[in-house]
Amino acid sequence: MRSKQLPSSVALLRYLGLRLVLLIPTVWILVTVVFFFMRVIGDPITAALGGRLSPAQLAERKAEAGYDRPVWVQYFEYLGNVLRGDFGTTNKDHRAISEVLLTNGAATVELVFWAVLVAFVVGIPLGRLAARYHDRLPDVTIRTFSVLVYAAPVFFIGLLAKLLFSSALGWLPSSGRASTGTRLELGRQGGSSHFMIVDAIRSGDGAAIIDVLRHAVLPALTLGLLTAGIFIRLIRINLLETVRADYVTAARARGVTERKVVSKHAFRNALIPVVTVMGMQIALMLGGAILTETTFEWDGLGYQLSQYLLARDFVAVQGIVTAIALVIAVTSFLIDVINALVDPRVRY
Amino acid sequence: MAWLSKLPARLPGYRLVKSTHGLQRVMLLVGGGLIAVFVIAALGAQWISPYDFDQTRYGGVPFGTQQPPSADHWFGTTVGGYDVFARVVYGARTAVMVVLASVAASIVLGVSTGVVSGYLGGWLDRLLVLVTDALYAFPSLLMAIIVSIVVSGGSSNASGGIISAALAITVIFVPQYFRVVRNATISAKTEPYVDAARVAGSKSGRIMFGHVLPNVSQTIPVLITLNASEAILTLASLGFLGFGIEPTSAAEWGYDLNKATTSDVANGIWWTGVFPGLAIVLVVTGVTLIGESLNDVLNPLLRTRGGATATTADEAELVQVVMSEVSDRRAPVERDRTASAAPAASDKGEAP
Q: Which of B139, B274, B352 sits opposite A223 (nearest CB)?
């Protein structure tokens, strides 16, 4: 059998090549599904302006924008534009979709960065702690926490956080990315990176930095704790599993200290499946933490998407959704690459 | 009094409770209790609640808006002048209807396509796997929003709103049932009893739904509990984002939370948000607890004798969280090798 197997590097390349090729139908199917779903409801012009214009005016506008042509023609035109990187312009506020993706995408990336930080800082130690005190009080407490965090919708946690830290105690701002003063000040600076914290640091104004950070605390904690709940479950269960593995027993038998057994031998191997799920979680968050962003009026991709959906701005929705599909597909590919590199068993 | 001692044995779920131990039994009982309260509220809403969910005045006198909890209004009133207690109780009814409709529809669609696809194989199978994979890789809440807009134009009357919410949730679930059942079918179709049926001259349809289906359906109860909690969260999320049911058509917790977030929280008004939010948390916790214990009890591979239940709970969780997310998410070519695993509910609708 062994002699028939391909050299492992060729097998790896073949596997990755296959995964890469499979990205294309995944993204294409999503773009297609969203396109036709959107067209089922009608055309963007009627959706946006119906009732405000006369039927004749509507028809004129539709012809102008090309929405009176057969849906297939529109579909292939749209696909062609997307392939060239042209997502179109929003109907609601006439912004180029690429600009929406850039500015609001940056806001989402910023939020996800803080949230992942919270999730790591809270999730990893608690997961390890729960595994270490398996079935004793710390474990039961931590598991209850992670079930409750799962059961609570993120907007309810956000609401409680706002009630407590913003309304009752008045410690933190309840919404937005920065106060108006800071926003104007950073806007005057010019050459925005779209990452508010980067702009604030560039301005060198301590008050602006603190203002931006204070605005990020509640959204980051809300989204981060939710993600931490998932991380806790994952790390705990994988750690418990690897601690029982033979090579861990072997390490113990050789006299390796318990501390080292857990941190060097068990923990690292427990991380392999964890990385996969974490990666997908992060990709999903990047795809728009719609609920968190809406709760805190954080002007990210998810918040914008839900605004465009409410306004029935289909060009915007299609563009953002396509971008989200791309992010998720590419991330899932990257995770598979990492997995294949780390764990030889994955390669086929 | 002899009949009293026999009574417990006649209650539904008695054998299920009997087959659990220790912590597992506590989880099952607590979960069952929470669900019982939820179902009672849903069925008896008009007797439990002193007011209707869309009532804003009593005897011609308006309730008043944003009134704090009082003897007349136990949970206070909302910014729209509704009674919060009534909306929480009636919200249970909406949630039950949406959960039942969406789970039933997903089972019918997902299980039948899964069995057919897995048993027949070929290009149809490849195509269905590709499509469900693409759908599964996509943030589920986003898909639900798009479907609900397609079905109802975003929001609508009671039955329309419930149906569109249920359909939106169904679209998320069908790929999960499809995947689990298809994978189980693929491993089941090589079993001798399938060959035997074929030799005896049974038609494909009869083999699929008479022989294979009963053998691949053990994982479904666990999946149902996972999906029931996800359905409640998705319904609330749709309502929260403004794609749910009109407030005058049915009470819906997510919508009330939205109103609380936008108009009440900044003024320190807590009662409009905290009560519907707690209702969601308690129901989802109840369903999750039942799901975790069902997983242990119904899956013989994980069942051990009394006392060792803690380990089985862990393993069940491992199966849920890791197996599905890790191995099922990969390329379809590999999928055949993973027998069956319930997809974990960890993505939670909001692309978190």
A: B352
